[in-house]
Amino acid sequence: MVALAVSLAAVAYLVLRNRRAREAVHALRSSEARFRSLVQLSSDVTLIVGTDGVIQYASPAARHTFGRRASTLEGVKLLSLVHPDDVGQTARFLGSLSAGQGRTVSEWRVRGSTGMWQWTENTTVDLSNEPAVGGVVINVRDISERRSLETRLTHQAFHDSLTRLANRSLFLNRVSHAVARAPRSQRPSAVLFLDLDDFKKVNDSLGHGVGDELLIAGAGRLSTCVRPGDTIARLGGDEFAVLLEDLEDMGHAVQIAERISTALRTPFRMQGRDVFIGVSIGIAAVLAGDSPEEVLRNADLAMYFAKGTDKGRWAIYAPEMHEQVLDRLELEADLRSAVDAGDIRVEYQPIVHLETGNIYGAEALVRWHHASRGQVSPSRFVGVAEETGLIVPIGRHVLHEACHRAREWRMRRKGARQLRMSVNLSGRHFQEDSLIADVQEALRDSGLEPKALTLEITESILMQRSDATLAKLRALKALGLHLAIDDFGTGYSSLGYLQQFPIDMLKIDRTFVDPVATPGSDPVLARAIIALGKTLHIETVAEGIERPEQREGLRAMGCTLGQGYLFARPMAADDLAASLIEPSRVPSVVEMYAPERPPLIPGALLQPDFQG
Ligand code: C2E
Ligand code: MG
Ligand code: MG
Questions:
Q1: Would you kindly state where each structural domain of the chain is located, as residue ranges?
Q2: Cys bridge to 403: 81, 448, 505, 607, which one at CB 3.0-4.6 A?
Q3: Ligand 1 atom at shortest distance from the alpha carbon of 458
Q4: Structural fold of domain 42-148
Q5: Do 416 and 410 form a contact (C-beta atoms < 8 A)?
Q6: ∠ Cα 411 417 419 (to 5°)
Q7: Parallel, antiparallel, or unpaired: how do β-strands 135-142 and 45-49 relate?
Q8: What is the number of helices (H) and of strands (E) in the chain?
Q9: 29-41 residue pLDDT tens
Q10: Among 344, 363, 365, which residue has the most ligand 1 atoms within 8 Å of its CB, making it the best to mutate?
């Protein structure tokens, strides 16, 4: 009985043990299946790499991720799949793995089946001491998309999206490297700061699309002017900068600046027309101890000088420039107050018939008397006024003033019934939408007949041969006034515009008048301009006549009108008015030069013999 009970207990124990064992095996199997399917279905690739660096196992995801069957990876050395640039780092990474260190992550590129490199993120556990594994387990994830986005974002952060040039951040970074190298380097480095002249006009007249195209084309030309290692950046708008390293000397930087200037001056063909732009360039040396911002600021300052003195040129930074800029800023502030306070006055210089000496008209010239600086020459402040836009209110003021005077003289002075008034129109005012209305208002306000008004424009206005320019000139002409080109011949422009634009008068610049009747010089250009005027039926006025022989010479060449110190200097309105009735008060210099001739201005002014 007892024996039976014992054997029953033994059977029960064995049955129980077997069941437990079966259950344990079952649990193990299902856990293994679960892990296998996790590994097999995972979108990440699992690799087991032996201590010899050979792949022992690759999960099926290899097909999807790298376009390779898993079996083709097994038996292959892992490093043979890694990008040559990443091999060193990968080998070091794998070598440094030691059991128990936990998971570590590294990124490297792996060659896919198409030969393209794919960025991978690799999470690694060293299980080489685990008998069931015996290697390093690597979980490989394809991160190419993330990396490419990162690269694009980084590129975007350091490049200008329009021109693909470096941007300010990258440029400053490169300059800081150049500054750091400066103490050890035998060869100088320099920064060029470039600003396109009149780019705004292109944008305004031809639209932003053309403006953008022009910037791209300009950037392309820029890159042809520098050496491969140089950095070109677009700083924003129409401003560019170039870092020139390893120069022979600073003269070398000037040569490159000249090259850039020439390249950008060649007209750009845009939408079937030639677009002209210029560039002003500031040059600053990269010196040890400077901050990159300082170098750029110095070059910017020099550019400002280049633009101020003579558009389209270059200037090298000098420390005195800071002081001059302060002076200019002060001038600007004072000019602003002078405009507000109505301290801007107008003087008038007679324009005479060369043949008879009779007055033909007068040119209104702006004057500014500064409390401490005294009389400031227009050549000094008109540029400042243009840049600040103050020239627009100044221009309006001169226009009103001149129209009122002309109307008064034509009405009241016997000798001035047909007097014509010339007013200088700045390029900046020409661009204003209000221009036509401003002129109309001055005419209406003063009651001056439009045909008595001549607007003097510069060649630079005509250089943009756009439809907008032509339309504006036509609109001005439609008011009934006359148009003259001032300082004719100094604008470096082709003369094709003369036929295209409705021009009535050419004012021959003083530089061409100077050689007239001057021993040893031949006034070829003055002669050619007068001949051109005759052919096109455009009146010519010689500017800056100072000597009687010049007047004679010009008259002999067929020039009909003239202006200059020989006849009279610019004078206050009242003085000119007085001369129209009281000849003796005219401050003419004629008698000094030609005592035997009847004085040109005084007697002549009274004679009402003009053509309207
Ligand atoms: P511009 O229009 O060509 O004016 C002629 C300039 O030559 C005047 O200088 C005049 O005083 C000077 N001039 C006249 N005869 C002689 C001469 O025989 N010899 C010499 N050496 N010079 C002579 P100013 O008044 O200093 O004006 C200089 C320039 O400033 C003007 O040249 C014009 O471009 C600009 N400007 C003057 N007034 C205005 C204005 O109201 N508006 C605008 N936008 N510009 C003006
Ligand atoms: Mg003028
Ligand atoms: Mg002139």
A1: 1-39, 42-148, 159-319
A2: 448
A3: 34
A4: Beta-Lactamase (3.30.450)
A5: yes
A6: 110
A7: antiparallel
A8: 24, 22
A9: 777 777 677 777 7
A10: 365
